[in-house]
Amino acid sequence: MKQIYTEPIAFYNKKRSFCYFYFNNKRIKIYNGKCLNKNIYPNKEKGKKGTIDSLNKLRSLLGNELKNNWIPENIKITYEQEFETSYKTLKKIDYEGSIFKERINIKFFEHQRLGSIKAAKEIAETIKERQSLNKNCVLGLATGSSPIDTYSNLIRIHKEEGLSFKNVITFNLDEYLEMDPNSIHSYHYFMHEHLFNHIDIKKENIHIPKGNLRESEIQKHCIQYEKKIETAGGIDLQLLGIGRNGHIGFNEPGSLESSITRKVTIDNKTRVDASQEFGGIENVPKKAISMGINTILNAKKIILIAWGENKRKVVKKAVEENVNDLIPASFLQNHNNTQFILDSESAANLNRFTCPWLYTDIGNYLSKILSSGKVGWDKKSIKKAVIWLSMKKNKPILLLTDEDYNENGMSEIFDKYKSAYLTNILVFNMLQHTITGWPGGKPNADDSQRPERASPRKKRVILFSPHPDDDVISMGGTFDRLIQQGHDVHVAYQTSGNIAVKDSDVLEITEFIKRLVNYLSIDEFNTLMKQNIINDNHVKMGTGFHNAIKNLFEKEINVEKYKALNKVKGLIRQSEAFQGCKHLGLSDETKIHFLDLPFYQTDRIKKKDISTQDIHIVKNLIETVKPHQIYAAGDLNDPHGTHRLCLRTIYKSIDILKSKSFMKTCNVWLYRGAWKEWKIHDIDMAVPLSPDQILKKRRAIFKHRSQKDTVAYPGKDLREFWQRAEDRNKNTAEFYSNLGFSKYAAMEAFKKYRF
What we know:
Blueprint: E1 9-11, E2 18-23, E3 26-30, H1 47-67, H2 79-84, H3 87-96, E4 105-109, H4 112-132, E5 137-141, H5 148-161, E6 168-172, E7 174-176, H6 187-194, E8 206-207, H7 215-231, E9 237-240, E10 262-265, H8 268-278, E11 287-290, H9 293-297, E12 301-306, H10 312-320, E13 338-343, H11 351-354, H12 367-370, H13 379-393, H14 402-407, H15 414-417, H16 420-432, E14 460-465, H17 470-484, E15 488-493, H18 503-519, H19 522-529, H20 537-553, H21 559-583, E16 592-594, H22 612-625, E17 629-633, H23 642-657, E18 667-671, E19 685-689, H24 691-702, H25 721-738, E20 746-753
Parallel strand pairs: 4-13, 5-6, 5-9, 6-8, 9-12, 12-13, 14-15, 14-17, 15-16, 17-18
Antiparallel strand pairs: 1-2, 2-3, 7-11, 10-11, 18-20, 19-20
Helix pairs in contact: 4-5, 13-16, 17-24, 18-20, 21-24, 22-23
């Protein structure tokens, strides 16, 4: 009779170590070699190394015995039990036994770019493998923002490495209903724009659900879609993204594991997330056609990609918690060949990152298991762990005890730092050294324990701002400090931000212009201008401008006029940005740069990828100013992705310039605030704000009148930006206070980028 088992795993524990495995759906613990008639007793060995060596020996022997049909004692085997234990069940059991409670195979990458390359390579290898067998390759494809970089890499592999798609048959996951395929919002348009138009795939091999069907045609179309997949031989590789509510395809919470291609109702949270692309939630379709969960699970291989902080919570639920129809992605735990490809941001809430010490010794012994970069009790991991422990115990750092450490799997720290007392002081000092009221460095001071250098006393600074308000929203207090402390500050607004200006704002301003020129006489105008350059045409010009703008909104806007209108909107934001800078003490217009990067100039929410031209503009400014400090937005959760693209232009510019002598003395600081804030353990510099500075910062934000009262693209946070910033700044100060530091009104936080 065939027995079903998992490979034994060695588990080191100071109190009592053991090996464990699953045998016919039951977990077996083995503490020594007695059951094998072997004299192996790991827990009687002296020292950690002796125990581990003995454990590994026991694990190896157990594996060999299991292969030779050894049956552990006291385990009864029945025909029914053998019959019911499937490979899928075994796979689930195997992940249940993962030390970090991960139930799905995961791969981590530091950046989305690297993860996208990996996903593209996996797809390319599948295509090549099927080509070598002279067979078609059937791909299931996803839409949304997540796979765009993956598709870009597939196009690159096609053009540079000669990968052909002539043997590829594709089936897309879904499509909106009541959607014309030629609409820019359709997934038909998306797939051709981002992939199909750039590769040699046969048109007849492309399958996307139809969105422009009559109600009576939908069911038949769904049945035919399933049959086409079956006729093609089933899906060889299915590419998935994951929604913030856990949906895959349009399988929203509550979807059944047995579901197939069908008409679905789109969850409100999904519609909110799509609202930016559609110009408001009222324009987002409520119905769609989607492959079912069962259709997806029938794929031979599944790759799910997830990027960014806003996917952290749902990734954790899908990977570490039980299968739950409220998190449809969790059904992937029941698939025997699924892989999640994650970046550092989307994976950050997993146990192996948040608190690995609770599950295992995080010393070098288990560095391969962690597979997450640097491992072990170095200063960085100790800092993170002690902050976590302080918050859990609700104690200031200096009040933590040996018992607190021992109870929470952190006793291994004492191998290096001997006691809670010494560890507490180490971490307290590390955090204390991040706090400074001198973001540009304190002149003539000992800077060995400060985040910034004392010299030069007057530093050249470039403050990069993706939109014309991110500077004051995220670091308005630090901006003020840098000006007040005498530094040479330049502000560079990377994009115009014009799409966030409402049409009504343009009308209000032009209405003012009209009334101004109609109200003032020519003499009064000349008095104000102090020169006789105004003639009687000024009234006609002002009124004409207003009427032209007004008429523009009352009829369909052609492309050329739309571009002109967006220039007006861009000028509105420029004016607001100048007023914000002036409020904080920077009035020299030569130091306020409006870069207007080309990637942003699409006159649509969706932007192009960055080009060499974008990088050239940013690089030239850096090379001209030769800064000692660069501040850049590390807040990458904006719903339109502009922050991420803007940061990439800076990173790529730095890569080009880093060999220059002036860059060797340049520190790069990343700020947040508009969308997220840095975790305490990530903070390298924290700048306290006084109550007066909080108000000054708030008023600087208020200078951006077009963004006041209602946020054009709020994401899931409906607060105004000044409210978000203040709350986050106050929370950061509160965190520091709870850890045992002085209580400040607020703090702006920065992370150092090391290049």
